[in-house]
Amino acid sequence: MKGSIFLELLEMAEETFGEEVVDRILDTTDLESGGAYTSVGTYSCGELVTLVSAFSDHSGIDGEELQRLFGHWMMTFFTKRYGSFFEGKTSAFDILEAIEDEIHVEVRKLYPDAELPTFATDRFSVKELDMVYTSPRPLAPFCRGLIEACLNLFNQKATIEMSALADAMQSTKFRISLVDQS
Amino acid sequence: MTSNAEKPATVSRSRYERERTAREHAEQLLEEKSRELFFVSEALSKHAAELEKAVEDRTAELNAALKKAEKDAAIKSRFFATMNHEIRTPLGGLMGMIDLLAMDEESRSKQELLRYAKASGLALSRIVNDVLDFSKMEAGVISFAQENVDLRALVESIGSMVRSDERMAERHFLASIDESVPERIICDATRIRQVISNFVTNAVRYSEDGPVIVRARGYGDSENEVLRIEVEDSGVGVEESRIKDLFQDFSQIPNSLTAAAQGTGLGLAISRRIVEGLNGRIGVETELGKGSVFWFEIPMISAPLNSVVEQEDFSRASRPIKGLRILLAEDNAINQKMLLTFLRRMGANVDLAENGAVALRKFAPQKYDLILMDVAMPEIDGLEAVRRMREQWSPDQLPPIVFLTAHEIPIIMEDAMALGATRVLTKPVQYENLQSGIREVMGLSDGDATPDAKGGKAKSDEDPETRLRKLVSADALKSHLTFMTIEGVVELVDDYVQDGLTIVDRIQTSYDSGDLDRCKMEAHSLVGSSSIVGFDEIADQARRIELGIAKLDAKQLAILLGGIGVGLRQIQDTMSA
Q1: Is residue B195 located within the same domain as residue B286?
Q2: Residue B270 has what pLDDT?
Q3: Residue A159 sits at the chain B interface (C-beta within 8 Å)
Q4: Are residues B137 and B174 located together in one domain of the fold?
């Protein structure tokens, strides 16, 4: 997992719980990297899961909820750092559909060995989009957070149904149905 | 989620250490990445260099192969030209000597022997031609000319040849050229004639009676017009199993009519190669015992109207050669003897020059009515000799010049014409050819250089029409007379000459002032008017200026303009005689 994810998680934690708390958790948690992350490095995904659960223990906020909040944080980060991806996009669906064919293509140019999840989309009606997230990492709530933040970007409201796929253990399906705003 | 945490003023040692570790890690990663990039870039450069080298090598190889091929072709071409010359020259000597002997021989039995000798000689020269042609095709050094051809006249001339064949004494030669064949087509007259003659000769050889019929027609759309020529006989025909061998090399169909094997068996193979070389097809429809139709088809390209026509005029009036003063430059002793005898027999006064240098010494204006110049001579060859004459004397001081060559005409035609030659004759020159060649040339230059030196003035009692007939091509005159009176045509010719002389001046002036476009334009207008009025020779020379102006030097232009000037003045003289 790319270092920038870790840096952003720590940034969010420092913002929320303060540097001292973050320092203490990093010092007391058993991490392979020793908690020293750089954005150009690659680290084990297990460290992310460990850190999320440590922050959960500290704050009493549910781990999945923390992942979802982190999804919101990351969307903001993406808009600041990679604004060009968002140019010419007029809706959340446009962004979600572009992850696989535009964003991941760019990511691979910088990090040819990046292990990326897949996001298969199917806009089966004007207001409904199925997105199937497939990854060996248990980060479905993080994805949900990203989807929500993406809808917020365009001031769109929608219901998001998450369901596991019976025949694909590593996949999660998100059915996103836009809600009329009048 | 809102942030309430205050950031402390200082950071802990552990935080500092973590940041430092992270930085070192990042630096190390960047170094690795740089090294990786370096190697990739190096590999790419190497690959690019290899590719470039490969391209260079390949280009060099191809260039070398091309050069070698060009050199080989040039060597082959030169070889065949030499062989041609070396074989034809002695053969011509033989034939000429036979002609001479036959003229003086009174004993009938010896006459007969000489006729056999002559027939054998002709047969040998046909075979030599076949073998040379075939070898040239094998060597791939044959090229095809693009000239304007009057197919009707061409077939007619083959007809007159065939009709004189004793085997055709009781039979008919019929030619039917469909209206779909334009008056003039663009193709290689010599090669087309060769194929048709070959078909016709076979038709005569392999049939006993019935007519030999030549048919020609055009078909197809305007994009892809095809000329189909057929030669039909009602002879022995060809067995089906032998048809596929017919057009193969060295094949010959044995038959009861040809007691002994005749020819080389190359005729149809050569025909096939010619037709294929012209992007055409060749074939035969035949039934054993009933006869054959040999045919070929080639793309038909109509020649633009009013264009230069290089065709022989078979009906040119015969003029006396008696009394003509001729300078003959020829180095070969046999040829000297032969030509001298021929010319003297025609009644000409011949002065012999053994080579180009002697010819130059002997020549002076007004001394000769005609120069016969061999091309290949030691020291100063015929072309060079004429070149020097042109330098020394103005065009109107030079009589008509006929080149004699054992080379094929196209090779020296360009040079000869640039020097203002009136005609080129190929050796071996036969008596009749020499006679008609000289007549033709002197007919063209009527009024200026015609002999009658002692008689003084030319025949001024001719009526205007007779004079016009000598000057203007028959077709053109016929067309003029459909809408003009004779007086009208005389006036037209007069205007044309005046206009032409002015154009000649303007071309020279434009050339002197460096305005080549203007030269080209003026020459073009002269081409047009000459063609329309019917002075094809002048049109031809003007076209040489039009097309070649960029490459002509001052001297060459002067020669061409001089030639045109002389031509125009001759017309004027003839008309006002």
Answers
A1: yes
A2: 85
A3: no
A4: no
**Partner-chain contact B5 A69, CB within 8 Å:** no
Do B152 and B285 lie in a common domain? yes
Query: For strand B281-287 and strand A118-125, is the pairing parallel, antiparallel, or unpaired?
Result: unpaired
B296-305 pLDDT, tens digit per residue, is: 999 988 877 5
pLDDT of residue B121: 83
Task: Give the model's confidence band at B251: pLDDT under 50 very low, under 70 low, under 90 confident, else very high.
Answer: low
B5 with A23: Cβ contact below 8 A: no
- CATH code for the part of the protein at A70-178: 3.90.1520.10
Q: To the nearest whole angstrom, how far is the Cα of A110 from the nearest Cα of chain B?
A: 11
- Residue B260 vs residue B500, higher pLDDT: B500
- b/e map of B447-480 (b: 16 or more CB within 10 Å)? bbbbbeeeeeebeeeeeeeebbebbbbebbbeeb
Q: Rounded to an integer, what distance in angstroms lies between the CA atom of residue B138 and that of residue B273? A: 9
Question: Does any CB of chain B come closer than 8 Å to the CB of residue A40?
Answer: yes
For residue B486, the enclosing domain spans 464-576
CATH number, domain with residue B356 = 3.40.50.2300
Write out the H or E segment, with its range, that includes residue B283.
Answer: strand B281-287
Beta-carbon separation of A41 and B14 below 8 A: no
Same domain, B156 and B272: yes
ipTM beyond cut 0.95: no
Give yes or no for a contact between A49 and A67, defined as CB atoms under 8 angstroms apart.
no
For residue A73, the chain B residue with the least C-alpha distance is: B1
Chain A partners within 8 Å of B8 (Cβ): 19-20
**Distance in angstroms (rounded) separating the CA atoms of residues A128 and A121:** 10
Q: Is the pLDDT of residue B4 over 70?
A: no
Cα A95 to Cα B252: distance, rounded to the nearest angstrom: 84
pLDDT, tens digit, for every residue of B305-332? 554 444 333 333 334 677 788 999 988 7
Q: Which of B1, B15, B25 sits opposite A38 (nearest CB)?
A: B25
Share of chain B above pLDDT 90, in %: 14
